[in-house]
Amino acid sequence: MQLNYELIAFDLDGTLLDSVPDLTLAAQKTLAALGFPSVAEEQVRDYVGNGADILIARALSQNIEIDPSITESTKKEARKLFDHYYAKGGHALSHLYPGVRETLYKLHEMGLKLALVTNKPSEFVPEILKQHQIEHFFIDCLGGDAFAEKKPNPVGLHWLMTQHNITPQKMLMVGDSKNDILAAKNAGCLSFGLTYGYNHGEPISLSNPDFVADNISELIGVVAACTKLEQHLF
């Protein structure tokens, strides 16, 4: 049995990057343009995690449960406006969480393959990674529109396993929401859940990740301990 990891898949929003301030501003401008009541940042923190379509539909609804009376045409118009305002904002209010860059650097130096699997629209991902100087750490970046289904569907994780010829036991999924943890379970790999970020107001522990941490830097210890265990066994 081999225990050490070869590839670590990361979520983006709420895991590596706190993007809610920019998402909130774009949502507020969208709602104002359409004549809908505004939303607060704390509301948006609960709405994030299922992709931009769901986020803006929740903002229109003022609730995590989408109002069925909101028409599809309104939701489509809102999504176009949201993308426009989000791009125009230049992600100026977003920032990496503590320890992110250092952790990615250390894992990269340890020889691990790092990939990004996010429900965020693909068009925004390269600019954000470059802006925060972490784009060079990732061998693959899969946005929310890379496949027909988003997390918790495991299609992105399955693609990574096929692409890099690895088994589920060789991959670890790192995220802040139940969608990340469920995607890992559905793919048959272990998960590392972070207590900060966005999880619809629920503790990440309720999703039963294999590891739980308050800071992403704790990931280094998990990977190192696994490697040491393998060396001891063999």
Automatic annotation (TrEMBL):
The keyword Magnesium applies. GO terms for molecular function: metal ion binding; phosphoglycolate phosphatase activity. It catalyses: 2-phosphoglycolate + H2O = glycolate + phosphate. Its cofactor is Mg(2+). Pathway: Organic acid metabolism; glycolate biosynthesis; glycolate from 2-phosphoglycolate: step 1/1. Its EC number is 3.1.3.18. The active site is at D11. CDD domains: HAD_PGPase (cd16417). The keyword NAD does not apply. Keywords: Carbohydrate metabolism, Hydrolase, Magnesium, Metal-binding. GO terms for cellular component: cytosol. One of its GO terms (biological process) is glycolate biosynthetic process. InterPro entries: HAD-like_hydrolase_sf, HAD-like_sf, HAD-SF_hydro_IA, HAD-SF_hydro_IIIA, HAD_2, HAD_sf, PGP-like_dom2, PGPase_prok. It is an enzyme of class 3 (hydrolase). Mg(2+) binds at D11, D13, D176. NCBIfam families: HAD-SF-IA-v1, HAD-SF-IA-v3, HAD-SF-IIIA, PGP_bact, PRK13222.1-2. Specifically catalyzes the dephosphorylation of 2-phosphoglycolate. Is involved in the dissimilation of the intracellular 2-phosphoglycolate formed during the DNA repair of 3'-phosphoglycolate ends, a major class of DNA lesions induced by oxidative stress. HAMAP family: GPH_hydrolase_bact. Belongs to the HAD-like hydrolase superfamily. CbbY/CbbZ/Gph/YieH family. This is Phosphoglycolate phosphatase. It comes from Vibrio caribbeanicus ATCC BAA-2122. The lineage of its organism: Bacteria, Pseudomonadati, Pseudomonadota, Gammaproteobacteria, Vibrionales.
